[in-house]
Amino acid sequence: MTTNKYLVTFLLAGTALAGCGGGGSADVPANSLSTAATISVNAATADPVLNQTGNPAYKEIERYKSWLSTNSDTAAALAADKTKATNIVSWQMPHGGFYKLPAWYGAPWNGTASRSEWFGANGVELGTIDNDGTVTEIMFLGNVYARSGTVAYRDSARRAMDFILNMQYSSGGFPQVYPARTGTSYSNYVTFNDNAMVRALVLLDHAAQQKAPFTGDFFTAAQRTRMTNAINLAVGYILNAQIVQNGVKTVWCAQHDPVNFAPRGARSYELPSKSGKESAQIVAFLMTRPQTAAIAASAKAAIAWYKSSQVKLENTAYEKTNSKATNTSPFITQAGSTTWYRFYDLNADTGFFSGRLPTDNPPGTGKQYDIMNVEPERRYGYEWGGSYGTSLFAYTNTVGY
Description:
Strand content: 5-15%
Distance between the termini: 33 Å
Mean pLDDT: 91
Helix content: 25-40%
Structural class: alpha+beta
Shape: globular
């Protein structure tokens, strides 16, 4: 996989629109991120590298810690973690990927059970980066290898890393699954949903820089080169997929077309939209990169969108538990809180909701602008809002964005 074709496209396009987004240069060399109190400069490009302290993107690869034993005895904790790591290796599929049900790792694979609940052509079992899948396994295996030296864990993580690198489209985006899923096309779209692609990219960046637990030769030099190329290509995709409204860059959809960058829907109640949730972590990831003019402009435009009075709900909180009990709106008045909708119209800053389609089983009401018109099962069974911009601003304000 190379980036040359797309680099040329982006450089020639400049700020021209591509699909539904504005184009920009994908020329983003790898770097060592600064944790100093001031902005540093990437030696290769002279582009500034922002202080990364507090960048919420890094939380995406820390969930493996919840898999670690809490036993206060060091030897016992390592023994428990080695057992789980050995079980994980047994569940790895031939293409290197994993599914997304960590409860399976309580026992080794029995040799016959399906190792995935999703399938592709000819019944092939699919690996995924959905719901922390594969990324968390790599982080956990890296941690246990660093403590045990068990080569099987490192080699499994290498195969899983190849799986992630192999799943990337030539346009730079990452799908939800690999190989392609049959019968459900949305899994094959470029997937920002639930931060899947961002999580994979943060992992690649962490590993390319040989940060713990991936120090030394944990990954091969060839793999680290592929990681750098993959990140550069993905940045180009992100810049091109950014939704432009009335000539102004805004944010991103939860899924995009892998070829023409257009926003795409997923399940029947997940319609093409500007995503208030997923876009926050896309911005956070862009701010891990050297700040070329194109990257900085993209991030700042998205931040401006989040700060717009047209999209944020001031003095409002999103709360489902009590509202479900009282059959009232989960958007409640709360002084000092700010909430964003999960979905906004593509061509307007209007938040919307969606029930299942009337033709679904069970049926629903489809797209609505009043959440109380959505059937209760979807109204309270899905996340329609949150304080998405709050943690982003806590970081961006510290670096002057």
